[in-house]
Amino acid sequence: MATAPQLARYYAQALTRVAAAPGADGSALAKNLIAHLRATGRMKLLPHIARSLKEAHARQGTLSGVVEVAREEERDTALAEAAAAGVHAKTVAVNPALVRGWRARSAGTLIDRSAKRSLIELYQRITSA
Prior knowledge:
By secondary structure, the chain is α+β, with helices and mostly antiparallel strands. Helices cover about 55% and strands about 20% of the residues.
């Protein structure tokens, strides 16, 4: 017999597959899921299913490419350079903490071409000498 987290993961995977189908209605899926859980006496699984869906969504976000730029003006250049480096990003976010340049994350890989990173490396070389 599967444990509650395993069952929740199975429900979340099934929901994700059904929701990805063309013409799927999210509110109808939610209502049907709740009705099914209530009928089978598994309402306690609902928070676990929600957690599994959030984890899957977060995992999907880290697998798809994301580019962070210091300013909006650097967006197109950063996307082109990231693509040349092997990161094909779907989203671009402005991160003012970068000072200048860009960072790209995809499938657990980080490519950091920011001025902030360059300054940190310069500081480390100066202080370690």
